[in-house]
Fold:
Amino acid sequence: MNQVLAVDATGLVKTFGSVRAVDDISIQVAAGEVYGVLGPNGAGKTTFLRMLFGLIRPDAGTIRVFGKTWDDSGVKTLDGVAGFIESPKFYPYLTGRQNLEGLALLDGGIRPGLLEETLEIVDLFGRSDHKVGGYSYGMRQRLGVAASLLREPKLLVLDEPANGLDPAGIRDMRALVKRLAASGLTVLLSSHHMDEVEEICDNVTIMRRGTIAFHGTIADLRSMAPDPGHVLSTTNDVRALDAARLHPDILVTRELGTALVVSGPVPAVSAYVGALVRDGIGLLGFTQTRTPLEELFFMLTDDNDSHGRYTDDVMTEGEYA
Amino acid sequence: MTAVETAPMGIDASAQRHTGRPGLFSVVRWEVRKLRAQQRARAVLLAALLAPVPIVVVLHGQSRPPKDTLFGRFAPDHGFSLMLLVLGFASQWVLPLLTAIVAGDIFASEDQHGTWKTVFTRSTSRSKLFWAKTLTAGGFAVLMLSLLETSTIVSSLLIVGHQPLLGLTGQTIPASTALPLVIASWGSMLAPVIGFTCLAIVLSIWSRNPAVGIATPVVLGMVMGLVGSLGGIDTIRPFLLSTAFESWHGLLAEPRFTGPLVEGVIVSTAWGFICLTTAFVLLRRRDITGG
Structure:
């Protein structure tokens, strides 16, 4: 069966002045998929999502949402689509409920009881008659989700929904997104947190400076991930660095002239650390730097050597002790 | 434990989805609702309703009337003269200001609150939102003008009286004729007020800044008034939006002439058309990158 794609973006280009915010990107999201768009700030994620919502016109390329384009269908392109871009914004002098009622008017009305249902889902029922101007950041994020759910969408687009939330808020928001995804919605999630995308998404596109740096499944991404890195602190870093010469499967570098960073397969790193202890070198600290997927994310998206040891140059020239 | 974790998932993805399209009236209702919630809009309407009362009381009690002003000489003791004195004062900058307080803010406040992206991602087109906001601003202007006119006329009649009016050519106009003429004079403000409303709208969209949208029409109105008072610019004067504010003078002359009234309506309509067309194109073509 030939199913219509939820999102079918082809050859999208958008330039602001001299900045090419999105440079010939193509992204396809199948119906029912939970899809992540990942990238650092300024990668072009939000520009892509704004084009999807018709807030920005692409300079080139087409974007179809459930088969409709803005040129052909206008605002009907958004039938079955909801979400928010960056932090959701509301009228601060109106209550949460009044904001939602107004947005429902702009949707041509909603079925009875839906507004209360959405307020319950996002845990704002008790605060719905308070003015939004007094809401916390997390409450506004949840009101944004409620405003999206009012449209009973087939495709939910969330742009960094956990941004600015405290740890509990992040946990709750992720739980909410997972539950929505599990209910059969197509979810397009933009984030700059690899762990968030890894936890929720099936497929992912990683963007860098307006282009696509990676596109594939989370499993594909995991298979590309480098060995984990660990920061090692010892009683004698000079001897520890020297001892690394006997372990060709690992990479040990000195970072900022102080701590050592050990990279390599876990068994080899484990053997190296064991050897240090046997040689009488005391271990003061041993912590993982980043998860392997985070390492890969930085490899794919870093522009320069701000994370120098992971750039191609450093990796090829890196000193295996 | 948070309710986000425990709340029932009330949204059924397979449920019948709503794909309705709001009518223009629904969007206007939403704009009116927002307007009613804003203290600034309520304050303007309240001022239009109440401010004429103390003004009439003060002018009525003055022993030295403003003789240099049109209808000023007899204003303290003649109700109809006082109504027209207030009209002349209001048309200088008060009416542009009062209409611009809403019209200059109604689009720019979406930029201020970052809410364009909120309303443009619903089922309402940009065109419909544009016309709903324009109708709301226009309706507010009509309401404001009606309140100001009614309050001025009623308070002048009650506090000063309905003595005959001395016309601009020295003729005496009996009260029974003066009242409809005064009402018509106030009514002639509608066209330029709507013109200034449209000017405020285009400035609101162009600048994305409520302060610019509100203040600039007032400043432009005063500049136009100043330019209009200069000599040697007779070819330009009829095309100034502020000139339409003086078009009622012909109603109070003997014989009466209505040419300036017609000219005022045409010029105001032209200003409104140009401003709204420009505003519409600006909003339709705009990339929403903020918020």
